[in-house]
Amino acid sequence: MAAERQEKVMLKPGKAERVGSAINIAVLCILTFITLYPFAYVVFASFSDPVAFMKHEGMLLSPVSFSLKAYRQVFTNPTIYVGYANTIFYVAVGTLVNILMTTTAAYVLSRKQLLLRRPILLMFIFTMYFNGGLIPNYLLIQKLGLINNRLSLIIPVAVSTYNLLIMISGFESIPVALEESARIDGANDLTILFRVIFPLAKPTIMVIMLYYAVGHWNSWFNAMIYLRDSAKMPLQIFLRDILTRNQMGAMNAGSDIEDIGITIKYATIIVSTLPILCIYPFIQKHFVKGVMIGAVKE
Amino acid sequence: MKVKKIKVHKNSFGYRLRKDLIRNKGLYLMLLPVIMYYLVFCYYPMYGAQIAFKDFVPKLGIEGSPFVGFKHFEAFFDSIYFARLIRNTLSINFFCLIFAFPAPIFLAVMLNEVRQIRFKKLVQTISYLPHFISTVVIAGMILEFTSTDGFITTIATWFGLPKQNLMYNPDLFQPIYVLSEIWQGIGWGSIIYIAGIAGINGELYEAARIDGAGKIKQIFHVTLPGIKPLIVTMFILKVGNMMSLGFEKIILLYNSSIYETSDVISTYVYRKGLVDMNYSFSTAVGLFNSVINLILLCIANKLSKKYTESSLW
Questions:
Q1: What's the CATH number for A77-297?
Q2: pTM summary value
Q3: Residue of B nearest to A41 (CA)
């Protein structure tokens, strides 16, 4: 049906339609350029010579006198390795906890026979729209003794209600018959979850896993308020220090002390974002699938 | 013997519940960790929010601190920052709703008209990208680009603005913030609308064309009405998150010389609470914020139920 419609449109486009379509494509090209350019600028700047870059003004279409100085500087800074290692730890352990909690909860809450299913779901959903606030949360973490503890970046964010809802609708779409035959063979709920549901819901679980992992990789606020030792800080905190450190100096324009590190800032952005940029083209269709599953739910 | 007695109340909720709990013991046990998580990390802080009505002293704890009623709320309403915070919070949200909310809908409609599948895929892939970059990096990029020598500042000088650090000009914070929100969210936000448009029955377009409707008319009479319920739902969700949105980004972007236009309730809660250690006052402001948020969500939901039939609950 849709194909037929497309064909017709393609066969006899009127003049007005052709012009309209050309304008449409032109606008989309401009939008794409605007989206991409800031990243391109960061890449060009990071490969520029620091001194030449300082003298340059306005847009960049290629690096100003190509140089790897900034990257050499970034990699001689030991804190970036500490940050990287910490972030990898938080992403790995955090995502594992997330997936265990989310899948078990989603499995139980996708069982329609449970009498308390709706009240429990409502209790979870309510927290999406109302929370105790910053300070009560902080006091709780303090009370639990998690301040300056690595677990403070993992346990308080163990479940995301939004992701849980997506997972539930993913599990609900699995035919009950498969599960019943496993039950007749004597499998219990845990076995069914890990042996039957997991393989069948793999796409959904992958999406949710990626959501959680990117969330851990990018998060910084909890680290800022809960952690104290720089040895435990994730990459984003080091990044924040490097990227916003000189903001006060920038007030008195003309002081050139702050400019020395500018290409280093750009190189640091690239180094810390590279893992996401590298896997992005491969995973973006999964992300999109996640939004679709969420949309079906609504 | 006992069984007989219970049988009488077979349909009572208590009986059914007990039976349900026994039969599904394993399932409920599996759910226990997650229920504990919600109780401890979501509901206990709500209980702890009572310090908004107390003068919190760490030694005395949440329950033991002296009750002071609405003292902190009154102090907030009387403070010189109250009007400024409300004004900034409302205006940033208002501009986001007017400009950043419809942007993904435009993009989705435009993408839907593209027949070159590979071009469409490419545009989509690129447009999602900013969504995955961390707030820290986005904020760092904005600060750098809008600094005195940044390229955005250079572009701004073409339009007659003086060469300056844009982020130290109070008049420019809100426009820059809203533009950056559009830039970050337009692609990701469009996914759901693209899916919605794909679900519209093709015969409707056919019928519209037979009636002589051009592309533009088809968009206004078929495409947009087709995704209206979706737009309404997204709008309600957006309103329901209004008061807390963008908080991390603003903290990274703003500085004391532009508080006048950039300080919003949630950033004020952060500064009062975790920088000035004024726990009770900060919690009171935060609670005020959450309650307003909840009220807005209810109003939006009610209005949409009345006028469009689609609602969250």
A1: 1.10.3720.10
A2: 0.88
A3: B151
